[in-house]
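Throughout our pipeline, every protein is held as a single compact record rather than as scattered files. Such a record has a labelled line for the sequence and another for the backbone structure tokens. This encoding replaces a full spatial description with a residue-level series of whole-number codes. For reference, a complete record is included directly beneath this paragraph.
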Amino acid sequence: MNVELGGGDMLHPFHPNIDLRPLPNTDIVHDLETGIPLRDNCADKVNANHLFQHLRRKPSYALMHEVYRILKPGGLFMVRVNDLDRVFGDLKCLWQDDKENAWKLASSIWGDQDYPDDLHMCGYNYSYLEWLLAKAGFTQIERRHVDNIAELLVYARKPV
């Protein structure tokens, strides 16, 4: 089984899609800050695409442990977040020369705020995310290439 966490209304190749909101492409409506409603060692892959910045700091760390719990040994966790190192660097340059694009980039920090839960509660850079994943027990933690330089994609494995 391949699990999508916080996939919202987007169509995903991974199912079940577990999200807080009852949207057409949500398979399980659940508050992920309270855990993942799946059994231990049931998932081959777990994907979290721009979920973790929407969670509070302590529940987001607890959710990393929950992902570890549901992954099978050797399972893959793919997590994508905004890369605050790059966002802040770009924002500083843009704010001086291009305030319109700086304002758009600021949504990487605070969220788009299009609906009540569309706020960013946490921020990550690679070293912080790597440290959190290692504390949760993951190994083979590696940064992957993404086309959007303001994003950070990290793969981590549950040891066999």
Observations:
- The mean pLDDT is 89.
- Helices lie at 57-70, 84-97, 99-105, 107-110, 126-135.
- Residues 82 and 148 are 10 Å apart (CA to CA).
